[in-house]
Amino acid sequence: MMDNWKPSTKAVHAGTKRSQYGELSEAIFMTQGFLYESAEQAEARFIEAGDDEFIYARYGNPTVAMFEERMAAIEGAEDAFATASGMAAVNGALMALVQAGDHIVAARALFGSCLFIVDEILPKFGVEVTLVDGTDLDAWRGAVRPDTKVCFLEAISNPTLEVIDIAGVSEIAHKVGAVVVVDNVFATPVFQKSMELGADVVVYSATKHIDGQGRCLGGIVLGSREFVRGPLQTYLKHTGAALSPFNAWVMLKGLETLALRCEAQAASATYLADALTGHKAINRVIFPFADDHPQQDLARRQMTQGGTMISLDLAGGKAAAFSFLNALKIVRISNNLGDAKSIITHPATTTHQRLSDAQRSGLGITDGLVRISVGLEDKDDLLDDILAALAG
Prior knowledge:
- The protein folds into two domains: 2-256, Aspartate Aminotransferase, domain 2; 259-391, Alpha-Beta Complex (Aspartate Aminotransferase, domain 1).
- Helix content is 40%, strand content 15%.
- It contains 15 helices and twelve strands.
- The chain has helices at residues 7-13, 39-47, 62-75, 86-95, 112-124, 137-143, 166-175, 188-191, 225-239, 245-256, 258-276, 296-302, 317-327, 357-363, 379-391, and strands spanning 79-83, 103-107, 128-132, 148-154, 179-183, 201-205, 219-223, 282-286, 309-314, 332-333, 343-345, 369-373.
- A seven-stranded mixed beta sheet has the order 1-7-6-5-4-2-3, sandwiched between helices. A five-stranded mixed beta sheet has the order 8-9-12-11-10.
- Strand 2 (103-107), helix 5 and strand 3 (128-132) form a beta-alpha-beta unit.
- Helix 1 packs antiparallel against helix 10 (245-256) and helix 4 runs parallel beside helix 5 (112-124).
- The mean pLDDT is 96.
């Protein structure tokens, strides 16, 4: 029956398991271990645990399993494994797919920690990494090789909001047998189904829109059952990136309102992007559905909405950016995103500060660039706050 449900219905009900008490809200199973009725049962479970059998919370937990099943249903994936953070999901997905001597091609426009994994950690373990302009399919074609095992990208890049052709990259990758891993955080599971576009593995920082209220860390990796319950689970259960049952419960509650929040936030982001375009203090307003966005047509093909994020390139550089941030009253300074509260950050001095000037310049991260995660406040209050801060 669930196969016929729409995503919003799945976000409320999918994966629910009730105890003998028949609780309406999902239960939190706050336990590390599980009991066995006999030594023989323990032996059998360690050989192969059933779908609803658990051994240790690092391997799985009933509350965590509900979150995994619900996310898999929403995303259209066969299975999922939840992690302690979004970066644990990215690291786990990549490490489970490669070994020394393998080759990865990745889009160069990545969140700072994602770039650190592909540019510094993986090469230490003998994995060769090639970074390309993710928006250029010819660059992907020129970079993939017979030994390429993974193509990794952010569906919408952080913080310059480049949009990557997932179907195009997937076609290129699959010709050489490579797995396509997509970080879909900015696009959200509400506005884009990356697996339908050709992605093999999708990762999320559940800390962002899925929680959506700044409470908990969490992440999740989605893909085929063979991958998730094979190399991914093996890597993650032994390296300890388990999501806590309480955080999983918070994420389950967040999923119930995910679509409502994201739709409202995207509507406000569209309104702000339109209203701020042409302002004398702004060199450029960056928003995937904006008429001047270089990948606007692609964004509209892949996504149902332009997302909840906008970036502004202020004319006065770092001084103007800092003055603007400090003058805001409603939009608050923080490096998180996807929150009910509107949040702003200056990437050049925070999330991407470890990059060289040349690297930031190559990615379009100027000293005047600010990234705004649009929240649930009244859109006119947000616009007034931004305009007043721009006026100084």
